[in-house]
Design brief:
The protein is mainly alpha-helical. It is built from 6 helices and 2 strands.
Length: 124
């Protein structure tokens, strides 16, 4: 076993033995550094990787079930027009109800397609 493999195994074993200690340390760190963490997350969620993470997290929270979230996100980014009415997507909050929405079945949780807000509301 080379040094890199040894260290990886050692650290895994150490983390397992010290699970509670690490949990407590992380809790204390988060409490002491709330503002610092909050500011760094604001910066992170403005990056492409942060936006992707946040979007996928929201999809999962709203009940979307999909085998490949990365591919679905790529399709989401590339989508420029509503798949129902064909209108070009607008910006959220511009009052036009043409911003992009993820349409999914609320019964099965399965993704159907990307629609503008107007079509998503009428489709139910």
């Amino acid at each position: 076993m080379d040094r890199k493999e040894y260290m990886k195994a050692y650290l895994k074993e150490w983390r397992e033995k010290n699970k509670e200690r690490l949990k407590e340390y992380q809790k204390e760190y988060r409490e002491k550094n709330k503002e610092k963490i909050k500011e760094s997350m604001k910066v992170h969620y403005k990056t492409p990787a942060g936006k992707k993470l946040s979007t996928i997290k929201n999809w999962k929270k709203s009940g979307l079930i999909n085998e490949d979230y990365d591919a679905l996100y790529q399709k989401y980014i590339e989508s420029t027009n509503c798949e129902e009415c064909g209108c070009e997507y607008g910006k959220y909050g511009d009052g036009s109800l043409t911003f992009r929405c993820m349409d999914h079945s609320h019964i099965t949780g399965l993704f159907r397609n990307f629609l503008c807000q107007r079509c998503n509301i009428t489709r139910g």
